[in-house]
Amino acid sequence: MFNIKQWTNANRKKVYFSAAAMIAAVCIGGVIWLNQRQAQSTAEEVPLVRTTVIAPSGTEQNYTYSGEVRGRYESQLAFQAGGKLTKRNVEVGSTVKAGDILMQLDPKDLQQTVNSTSAQVESAQSQLRLAQINLERYRQLYEQNAISQAQLDQYQNAYDVAVAAVRQAAAQHAQGVNQLDYSMLYADKPGVVASISAETGQIVSAGQSVIVLVQDGEREIEINVPENRLESLRHASRIDVTFWALPNLTLEGRLREIAPVADATAKTYKVRVSLLQAPPEIQLGMTAAVTVAASGSQPGSVAVIPLSAVYQVNDAPAVWVVTDDTVHLRQIQAGQFGQSDLEVLSGLKPGDIIVTAGVHKLREGQKVRTTNGGTR
């Protein structure tokens, strides 16, 4: 006889076995999938980093600046009196000698001043002669007891005033003569006219620069240097100067002057480099390139690294050093900061490989793949 209860129990066992088999299969598949994902993730976690090799200390770094040939002494010439410019005897590039007349102002008003002061001198001298005659006359009367001492003193005083008036008029006349002479602008030294900033017919004031005269003698190169390069410029091992118009000529330069104040707009410092034994073909205004061979590190430093390699740990600088494709954090002692680099005083040695990009994404002991970014 068919037993429904036994049949139900048998089917229930089959269902249980089927469910258990499915669950086991799912678990096995999940484990395999997780292992594959973990292996894939592990492979993906080995990043490619940019690195650089620490070069030996003392490596020279060359910096090149464009400049212009200038004179050692440049005079800003100006009239000592104001007026209308009526004559110009030179052009830009003219060679002049000491005493040459460069420009001239309209002398009419100045000549009238001289005429007026000359007349004042003659008038004062006439008053002096009259005062002298009166003094002599009244001195004789005093000796004859015809006048009192007080009256004689009055004429003595009038004579003294007349003498002072002559001196004053003479001084004013001399000043007027000087002003008339100031209507002509002279070259005080031999040289070359570098620029002219006034033309005939223009009204110029006293002290207004109208001509730049470059005196004969030394030639220099004027360059502009950013503030972070000044120290390396001061300790330059060599300065070479080349010229665009003279490609086969290279001269040695010498640092002569660094401006004490930076340019308000460019924030660079004007620097003058003297040319040693400059040949005559070096002309004013030529374009020059100044190459500074400066020591790559300050005294006591062992390396210069890019700022992108620095990793800050509790206000202490550090770098990631790659050893056997594994990164390790190493603290360093920082020296002078540059615009894009940093001098390291201790903590690194030549041959060390450091990471220069993506330093904030690494962790201690992490495996990396390296690409050498070149030595510094």
UniProtKB/TrEMBL annotation:
Residues forming the YknX-like C-terminal permuted SH3-like domain are 303-369
Keyword Transmembrane helix appears in the UniProt entry: yes
Q: Outline the extent of the Multidrug resistance protein MdtA-like barrel-sandwich hybrid domain.
A: 80-214
List each copy of the Multidrug resistance protein MdtA-like alpha-helical hairpin domain by range: 115-183
Domain named CusB-like beta-barrel is located at 221-295
Q: Where are the transmembrane segments?
A: 15-34
State the source organism's domain of life. Bacteria
**InterPro entries from the UniProt entry:** Beta-barrel_RND_2, MdtA-like_BSH, MdtA-like_HH, RND_pump_MFP, YknX-like_C
List cellular component terms (GO): efflux pump complex
Q: Name one GO molecular function term.
A: efflux transmembrane transporter activity
Keyword entries, A-Z: Coiled coil, Membrane, Transmembrane, Transmembrane helix
Q: Which residues form a coiled coil?
A: 121-158
Enumerate the NCBIfam families for this protein: RND_mfp (TIGR01730)
* Family, per entry: Belongs to the membrane fusion protein (MFP) (TC 8.A.1) family.
The molecule here is called RND family efflux transporter, MFP subunit
